[in-house]
Design a protein that fits this description.
2 domains, 11 helices, binds phenylalanine, BirA Bifunctional Protein, domain 2, 7-stranded mixed β-sheet
């Protein structure tokens, strides 16, 4: 009898441990503890035994029952926990929530917004134009005759398989000045416009050069505009942007579409003019090209250069970003490393 109780106990326990569903567990319970269950039937036989053995067996039967019941409870709990973890139906509402990561603006966008605000305060409008461009707007209209050596300075990327209407290959615009002709053809002066956008050149990349970079180009057309208006505009814009301590320097240059032309430098904001790899140890960084719009360009756009004059300019915006945030390498701007981007 004793052995029979122990056998029922062992059998029940091994089945309980192996059960992996609640339903199965319930069935095992009925199989052992139900009205006709193995344990119940065995328990009933005690009453038919001689009186002297009953108490001992009664104690054993109680122990076996408790052990089996405890095993059921334990396994039921384990199974219900597993189910909760598995389908996510249960969760601890007292746990602190996970904060969703907030996105933020890229440093280029921050700088662009700031530049736009500064120019807007001077009465400029904002325009946008195509990055895939024809030779006409990128060169011809800007007084770059065919075979002119100045074209070499532009390191043009030709789209050989993408011809324009005349069968000439389209190009990736090498500068935002493609918009100069497009705008002047359409507007009635006076006008002031900036046109930020991406430009492309076949260029070896280094700390301060990229093959794909942002420019903010623009123009002002009016009566009696002179070179000093251009100088004044640059002083104002660059000091607003980099801070009043910044010095601005103009150096004579040559662009086919402006006459006279100038390159514009600011004191290097990375080293504050002391000299570093970003400014090639000179303390100055070239930040823009500019000049008075060439009469040939005005003429090509149908504007009478005897009445209207203007200046045009092109800022290297990617450089303005790296200078503003004192990054010593322009390539960081296209690096997707979040450790860089999270600093803004
Ligand atoms: N387009 C010139 C460049 O990309 C900049 C420039 C714009 C110069 C307008 C003069 C006038 O270098």
């Amino acid at each position: 009898m004793r052995e029979q109780f122990l056998q029922v106990k062992n059998e029940a326990l091994s089945l309980i441990i192996d059960a992996d569903e609640r339903k199965e567990l319930e069935e095992i319970k009925i199989q052992f503890l139900g009205k006709k269950g193995k344990f119940t039937v065995l328990l009933k036989t005690i009453s038919k035994l001689p009186l002297n053995v009953r108490p001992q067996l009664g104690v054993l039967a109680n122990e076996v029952k408790t052990t089996i019941e405890e095993a059921f409870a334990r396994r039921a709990l384990e199974l219900s926990r597993g189910a909760e973890e598995g389908d996510g139906a249960w969760f601890d509402v007292t746990l602190p929530g996970k904060k969703p990561k907030l996105g933020h603006l890229h440093p280029q966008t921050l700088v662009l917004d700031e530049i736009i605000d500064i120019f807007k305060s001077l009465g400029y409008q904002i325009a946008d134009g195509p990055e895939i461009e024809s030779d006409h707007y990128n060169f011809e209209m800007l007084n770059f005759p065919k075979d002119h050596p100045a074209r070499d300075t532009q390191q043009t990327l030709n789209l050989k398989n993408l011809p324009d209407k005349e069968g000439q290959p389209l190009i990736l615009r090498t500068h935002g000045s493609n918009m100069q002709g497009r705008i002047m053809e359409k507007v009635i002066p006076p006008c002031r416009v900036i046109y930020p956008g991406k430009v492309y050149r076949y260029e070896q990349t280094d700390a301060s050069h990229g093959f794909e970079f942002w420019q903010v180009e623009g123009l002002a057309l009016d009566k009696n505009i002179t070179l000093t208006d251009l100088f004044g505009t640059f002083e104002y814009v660059l000091k607003q942007f980099f801070g009043q301590h910044t010095q601005v320097r103009f150096a004579a240059h040559n662009f086919p579409f402006t006459e006279p032309s100038t390159e514009v430098y600011v004191t290097c904001a990375v080293c504050r003019g002391k000299g570093c790899s970003f400014c090639k140890k000179s303390g100055w960084v070239e930040i823009a090209g500019a000049g008075m719009i060439h009469p040939n360009v005005l003429k090509a756009a149908g504007i009478d250069s005897k009445i209207w004059q203007g200046f045009a300019f092109g800022f290297g915006m990617s450089r303005m970003v790296t200078l503003k945030y004192q990054m010593d390498d322009l390539r960081l701007l296209t690096n997707p490393d979040l450790r860089i981007l999270e600093q803004f």
